[in-house]
Amino acid sequence: MKASTQLISAAVFALSTAGIISAGTALAEEPQFEKCYGIAAAGKNDCQTATSSCAGTSKHDRQTDAFIAVPQGTCSKIAGATLEAK
Question: Where is the signal peptide (predicted)?
Fold first, then answer.
């Protein structure tokens, strides 16, 4: 096989492979998350609460106004968890 034919074959293969890879990633969906209150361990909350100014500052385990983000539909399956702060 000539060098130019090999080069063309390699280019066609590379382009077809890139098309397959990008088509596969286009089908993947972004995961959806929800705020789940009352389950974070002390200092492990994702964002500010009514009593603390930023993430990672909750004072005690299962603080009712502290949340962590969990995959959509998961919070309702966790004992003691709620979708709203108390």
Answer: 1-28
